[in-house]
Amino acid sequence: MSPMKYIVVFCVAALPMFALAAGDTLVQLAQFEDNSKLLESLSLWSTLIIAFVTSGMVWVGGRTMRGGVFGKVLTYFSIGMTLVFLGFVTEVPWVQGFSPLYLKLAHSSLYILGYIFMGLAANKLLRTVKGI
Q1: Considering the entire predicted model, what is its pTM?
Q2: Per-residue pLDDT tens for 83-128?
Q3: Which one of 32, 57, 69, 123 has the lowest number of neighbouring Cβ atoms within 10 Å?
Q4: Which sequence spans correspond to the domains of the chain?
Q5: Buried/exposed code over 81-109 (b: 16+ C-beta within 10 A; e: otherwise)
């Protein structure tokens, strides 16, 4: 069996174990509170760092190819990733002092533009692969 099949078999076998576990254990796990907000902070910082680093890696990869079809695709894709990252940044607690209307407008606009650029990248790649 392939490793993926082992994972699926384990998940299927472990599911009843979690479903039939003692009710108190599940309630205790569900009611875990992070009063210090440490886990929330770690999650936020790791998301920001990983999004920034991967956007930068794709941007550098596109620039390293010095043009060409795949370089343009990676450049468009990295622009889209950066715009989505900036849209995510409008949701962090540090910018909540601004007007909620403008934050929501910026968030939605950045996400829309980011996905448009990533769609353009996918379209360029598809046209290249099909030879159009």
Answers
A1: 0.66
A2: 999 998 888 888 878 888 998 999 999 999 999 999 999 999 899 8
A3: 32
A4: 1-32, 37-130
A5: bbbbbbbbbbeeeeeeeeeeeeeeebbee
